[in-house]
Amino acid sequence: MWHVEAVKNKAALLLSLLLVTLVCADADVSLVTEGKPVAEIVVAEDASPSVQTAAAELQKHLEAMSGAKLPLVHLPTKDVANKVFVGKNAVPKELEFSLDGVKADGFRIVAADHHLILAGNESYNFAKSFSEFLAIPRFSRQSEWEKLIGKKWRFPPMIDYRDYSEELGFHSFDGTGTLYAVYDFLEQLGMRWYAPIPELGIVTPERKDIQAKVQSLTKNPEFPVRYFVDTRVGTSTLDEFLWYKSMRVGGDRFVPIYHSVSGPTKLYPEEQPQDYYGKVDGKTDYHVPHLTSPELRKDMVTYLQKVEEHFPGIDYISIGQPDGWTFMDSDDVAAGWDKLEERGKAGRYSDYAWDFNLDVRNRLMKLYPDKKFTFFAYGQTSRIPSNLEKVPDNVVVGFTQTSAFWMLPEGRESLERRKEWISHMSSPDQLFIWEYYLQHAPNYNFPPVPVIFPALMKENFAGLYDHSLGFVAEIGWTSSNAPLPEGYPVMARPWISHIMLYLHNKLCWDRNLDIRATLDEYYALFYGPAEKEMKEFFEFAESVWMRPLPRQITAAGGFLKQEDVDRYFDLLKRAKEKAGDTVYGKRIDGIRVEMDSLSLLFKKLQRTGPNIQIMTSKEKPVIDGDLEKPFWREQDPNRYGFHTLSDMLTGEQPEHVETRVSFRWINDNSALIVGIECMEPKMDHLRETCETADSSTIFADDMVEIRLETAAGIRPLIGVNSAGVVFDEAITERLEDLPSFYKVGKVAVKKYPDRWTAEVQIDAEPISGERPTKFFPWGVNVNRQRMAGNEPEHYMLSPSGTNFREPTCMGNIFVRK
């Protein structure tokens, strides 16, 4: 009897499930049928900026998929049966929709009974706390800040205003849950935002029929804060700004962590109390904070009070050490604050910094008892202080790391330091990760290989779930003045950088993400017929990157080999042959173009000339031939000064004449400035027969030649005779890379009784001149041909022993970082 009843109950259950399935199938909400709109998008008339953007994005992408443009209305109409409500305020009360249970800037998607609701929590952190300075032009904020506070202290760099989109009305840091809900729904329909390149970076399926599946879905972020910095997307393109938003970048709060100690100390050091600064070897060093100084501690509190006054509504106060801090005041060293021997380099200054941080915090707590505070664990304060039993509950530690380097022993040490910090914390809201993904930024100019490390990324996140409030991810950026094609992103090398950033953000929302399955989907959707070859390409790139070898590439070693370069390009060639001239092929071309300079890397490593570290300058000088002006003479001659040329054949420096050269790189990456000084005892014998620009007769005169080879392989030759006539040209192995013509920026010659000088501005853009670095230095040689003597003399920066045109005899110039 029991058995029969059980069978009946089971049958009834199956019938019930079948009916539910049929009802659900019938209840899918149709949005487009046979290419025609059958629904309308409803958004409140007073909707916030990101909610309005969400509605517009939904309309745009549904049309791109189907050709059907859904009407956008502020109130539901009777003529259209199906409704898409965007934002909580658009939903009618009778639907009883709520965001209860949605955490941070999460969202909810509900689809049933002829309606679809896409809504989430909104948090406009930027408008709330930064509105006082939003209308002030960027380069005027420092002066306005000084007027407001009555001090010559630095405008607090808590946030990059360039990541605020004036067109859309919100910042990339803002929590925009409704916009996330729209992107999540579009992903359900098959869309993917893989890269920030207009048209090519998005996968958009073609669908004549579009339905929203019945669902009641709530998604909360794994971390309430998910920032990307140095994106500068507010001033680039909407495509790039919205790419970050499609990956759900943002947060429900603003957590400032910046070098706030630089506020009182950085900009006008000679005008500040000198006790702010430490003394090293008896001399004041303006890069060294004197953290035991009572005056600095007192003024640090005052500075942060001013920040609190003019940037209201921020729950946290940042007490952050100066950037690039490497030395300590000599008296503080003598007092035992330098812990190098006991704690190693990573913990050398931890006790010292935390003594300062906690004292400033305690003073501020008397004024703001409910505030929280952020401290850095950065550089020589990466280790926890030796006497800290527990991180105070109102303190957040900003731990800096580069998880992409965890295949190296020093990378594993960083991971162990992070675990030590976590063990001394009582809440996941006390750890904030500052992650570096900036290998391809111009200041680093890392070899242009795909940096692929999914296993390390998974390990990184696994150790942070339930232990951290989130990330600041610092990514590669281009120079703010770098020439870019219209609509091209600010992000550096987006074709070889995008996929790991995509994975990073996916893991910020889903701890159970199957990374390999996500990558397999990427290969299939993004590369189509070349799926197999591109999977092989990226998996090979991963195997190269994961080698536990030094990241710096030299002729003797490093993680990258010449045979790797050959295989990269072979795989790309095979993939391109499969994809052809399609959207898939264009994506492969984008990768190849970004990697092109790699083909010259090992050739450049064979240069035999000297390695010359050059100084940077914030501003271009007036090019007038004067090498006595501060632009040249205020730099330390022992580090970045003038270099003496030697005899081309013997390599010896002559006694009767001297020739010296110096280089300066303009910090906005726009130009290289070269200054050459030619001592000449016979100024009245200078040979100056050439009077016409670009005439080969210049090579018979008293002249100087500058030969360069940029990272892109373009080799400018610039000749200047003592009369100021110029010969300029550029060559390369790839003729298609040459500009239609080449002309050097500016040249000037100046004559004195005992010498003549040449000053040359070489613009970077015409010669694809990315910032020269140790990884990708520029080849350089400078030659002086002296004809004022009895017979020709030749002096070179890098003597060849044969002739001036031998490229392997070039030296290397580079900017440190």
Q: Using the 3D structure, state the CATH architecture of the domain at 606-815.
A: Sandwich
Residues in helix, %: 25-40%
- The multimeric state of the shown protein is single chain
Low-confidence stretches: 1-26
Q: Structural class of the secondary structure composition?
A: alpha/beta
Describe it.
44% of the residues are buried. The model is unreliable at 1-26 (pLDDT under 50). Among the domains are: 25-122 and 175-219, 2-Layer Sandwich (Chitobiase, domain 2), CATH 3.30.379.10; 515-598, no CATH class; 606-815, Immunoglobulin-like (Sandwich), CATH 2.60.40. It is globular. With 817 residues, the protein is α/β, with parallel strands linked by helices. Helix content is 29%, strand content 22%.
Could you give a quick summary of the protein structure above?
The chain is an alpha/beta fold and 817 residues long. Helix content is 29%, strand content 22%. Helix 2 runs parallel beside helix 5, helix 15 packs across helix 16 and helix 17 runs antiparallel to helix 18.
What is the element layout, followed by pairings?
Blueprint: H1 2-27, E1 29-33, E2 36-37, E3 39-43, H2 49-66, E4 72-73, E5 82-86, E6 107-112, E7 115-120, E8 122-123, H3 125-134, H4 141-149, E9 164-165, E10 170-171, E11 175-176, H5 177-188, E12 192-193, E13 202-203, E14 210-212, E15 215-219, E16 225-229, H6 238-246, E17 250-251, H7 262-265, E18 277-280, E19 283-289, H8 294-310, E20 316-319, H9 330-334, H10 340-343, H11 350-367, E21 372-377, E22 395-401, H12 409-423, E23 431-437, H13 454-462, E24 470-475, H14 494-507, H15 515-527, H16 531-545, H17 562-579, H18 583-595, H19 601-604, E25 611-617, H20 630-633, H21 637-640, E26 643-644, E27 646-647, E28 659-666, E29 671-679, E30 703-709, E31 715-721, E32 726-731, E33 746-751, E34 755-763, E35 778-786, E36 793-796, E37 811-815
Parallel strand pairs: 3-4, 3-5, 5-7, 16-24, 20-21, 21-22, 22-23, 23-24, 25-28, 25-37
Antiparallel strand pairs: 1-2, 1-14, 6-7, 6-15, 8-11, 9-10, 12-13, 16-17, 18-19, 26-28, 27-36, 28-29, 29-34, 30-31, 30-35, 31-32, 33-34, 35-36, 35-37
